[in-house]
Amino acid sequence: MGEFELIRHYFAAAPCAQGGDGVVRSIGDDCALLALPAGEQLAVSTDTLVAGVHFPEASDAFLLGQRALAVSASDLAAMGATPQAFTLALTLPSASETWLAEFARGLQSMAQSCSLALVGGDTTRGPLSLTLTVFGRVPVGKALLRSGAQVGDLLCVGGELGDAAGALPLVLGQRETTPEISAALLARYWSPQPQLALGQALRGRASAALDISDGLLADCGHIARASQVALQIELARIPLSAALRAFAGEEQARLCALGGGDDYRLAFTLQPDLLAQLQADWPEVRVIGRVLAGSGVQLLDAAGQPIEPPRGGYQHF
Ligand code: ADP
Ligand code: MG
Q1: Are 153 and 272 in contact (CB under 8 A)?
Q2: Which residue's alpha carbon is nearest to atom 18 within ligand 1?
Q3: What phi and psi, each to the nearest 5 degrees, are found at residue 177?
Q4: Residues 189 and 105 in one domain
Q5: pLDDT below 50 — which residues of the chain?
C-alpha cells in the first residue's frame, strides 16, 4: 500500500475526517481551511508521543489512537476552548494494515467523543511517533489562562487524581491485580476523557486553569508562577479513587496524585462564592486548597502542618 492509498484508506475515509463545524476544506489539499466565527479566537496545541518514551513500543494500537487524541484535546479543555479540528503527523516503522486499522479506529472513537474533525496531517517512515495538533475556538478574551489566580481563591480539581500514574505497573506488565481494579486504572491511563464540557463551563468563572499532565504539584507550580501567587494544597482533600487506594495503598496513591502525571483532569482556581453553583452541575469538582500571597506550592498534612513536597513532575531534560 502506497503513502497516498494509506492516507485515503485509513484517515481520509474515516467518519471523523468528513468535515464538521467550521471546516471549510479538509484532507486533500495543501492546507486545511478552518472558519472562525466573528468574535472568537483560535486555540492551538501540539503534543508528540514517542514510542518507548510516552508509551510502550508494543502498545495496543486502538488504545494508542484513543490516548493520543485525548492527551491533545485535554489542552483545549484547559483553555475552555470548544473543540473544532485536529491534524495527525504519523511516523511509522512500517505500514502494518492491522496496526493502522486499529489505530484509526481508536482515533475515530476519541474524535467522535470530543467532536473533533481530522483535517490533515503528514505520514512518514521512521521510529513510531505521533504528533497531534488540535484546534479549538474560544470567545475573544475568554480563554482560561494559567495567569489569573487571585489571593483568596479556592484551588479545585475536576475529579480523582493519580489513577493513570498508578496504572503504570499494569501498563508495563510489572504487576497484576483483580480484573475490576485493573480495568478501572487502565481505562484512566488509556482513555482519559478530556474535561471539555467542564472547561467550557469554567469560562468566565475560573480565574486560572490548566490540565494536569505532569502531576498535580508540578502543574500547580505552573499556575503559581504564572499568577505570581502561592498555592496551598491540603493532602487529605486530594480525591483518590477506590481502585487506586486498593491497588497502591493510601500513601502511594497520594504520591501518584502529587507527582505521577497523565491525569488529564483540570486544576483551576475559583472565587469561593462561585463554588456551590459549579458543584451543583459538576459534583466531581473538589476543593483541594487555596491561593495565598507568596510563591510556589505548599503542602499541608491531615493535621494542617506544612510538609516537604516530594520531588514532582516528569521532565524530559
Ligand atoms: P503535502 O505534500 O502537500 O504536504 P501530503 O502528501 O503530505 O501533502 O498529504 C496529502 C494530504 O493528506 C494533505 O491534505 C495532508 O494534510 C493529508 N494527510 C497526510 N497524512 C495524513 C494523516 N496521517 N492523517 C490525515 N491526513 C493526512
Ligand atoms: Mg506532507
Answers
A1: yes
A2: 121
A3: -155, -170
A4: no
A5: 313, 316
